[in-house]
Amino acid sequence: MMLWIMRISGFFSAATVMVVLSPSLQSFPPAEAIRSSNLDGYLRFPAGTHASGARDSFSFRQAPPFRNAEECGGLGDDSTVCDPSLVHIAITLDVDYLRGSIAAVHSILQHALCPENVFFHFLVSDTSLETLVRSAFPRLRFKVYYFDPERVRGLISSSVRQALEQPLNYARNYLADMLEPCVRRVIYLDSDLVVVDDVAKLWRTSLGSRTVGAPEYCHANFTKYFTERFWSDPRLAGTFAGRRPCYFNTGVMVIDLVRWRRFGYTRRIVRWMEVQKGGASAGWGGRIYELGSLPPFLLVFAGHVAPIEHRWNQHGLGGDNVKGSCRDLHPGPVSLLHWSGSGKPWVRLDSNRPCPLDALWAPYDLYGPASSL
Ligand SMILES: *[C@@H]1O[C@H](CO)[C@@H](O)[C@H](O)[C@H]1NC(C)=O
């Protein structure tokens, strides 16, 4: 552990990361970590990759097989998505973030005590990506769901960063409709993160009577997530009356789908997106927020979220939305590292200008042909 941290990251505070990460990273195989940190053999994404041209040039190495520990109990080969012992995880797959999604899956399998009990629900707008997932994880339990971009086309509002305007970013709002009714709970995860702890612990979190669980950040200045317009119109700002709203990040959420369906939250979120789009023409006086898919979730759930330990979303590692500067970990233990913000570890590693903590993402990267090992 000590050895590989030192070797892959001579220039960052190894001591800090050691103290913070060592409890949750003990199962990390040191040999693989060292090997993967040698980036010379890695392919680059063609600049400005998009759609089918890029897809043809992707290739992923096959991940090693992951098997349940004995105490997991058996899950028959004939078990279906409705098996109650499954842990359900939803992630989007798209060409630009595919490398991140594959690394996220890899990290989850590697740290799970019962990896064969994890069922992945992949949301795609390009169904050909299924083949790539299968090539990286031959035995993975998963299902691919087609998310029609047209579903949200008229609802997306321009934002501070173009990546936030991708239709698939909005797919998380439709999970309750898309997944089978027998799936009662799901963990939604962004594509720019790795899990370094057993995801079953997050799965078992109690939500009490809440519908959504996520780490809350009550010291963040909540005001800034909405425009002055919003705050100055009592019909709008009044939505937070009687709540103590706190910021939470929608990249890691535990969702009770039964309650979500019962209370029709998809519709409530869509209604806020309509207010944002309707703007002046609808008599609401313009934009009510500047970010992408996040603010409607804050409007509906902030103050009503089941608080989850902060270790499950060490967010912001991508840096700020404008400059993409390097960020440090927040104090405390780490179970999930999240490169939210504009900088992505695969881009920075490929350009030989990584941030120190990007070295913690690299071991999960499966991108590149088998011969690059
Ligand atoms: C919070 O942000 C708003 C809007 O940017 C600003 O006007 C206000 O002064 C901030 N409050 C604090 C306590 O920093």
Automatic annotation (TrEMBL):
Subcellular location: Endomembrane system
Pathway: Glycan metabolism; pectin biosynthesis
Signal sequence coordinates: 1-33
Gene3D superfamilies membership: Spore Coat Polysaccharide Biosynthesis Protein SpsA, Chain A
GO annotations of cellular component type: Golgi apparatus
Keyword DNA repair: no
Membrane topology classification: Single-pass type II membrane protein
Enzyme Commission number(s) of this protein: 2.4.1.-
Keywords: Glycoprotein, Glycosyltransferase, Membrane, Signal, Signal-anchor, Transferase, Transmembrane, Transmembrane helix
GO MF terms, alphabetically ordered: glycosyltransferase activity
Family: Belongs to the glycosyltransferase 8 family.
Protein known as: Hexosyltransferase
Species: Phoenix dactylifera (Date palm)
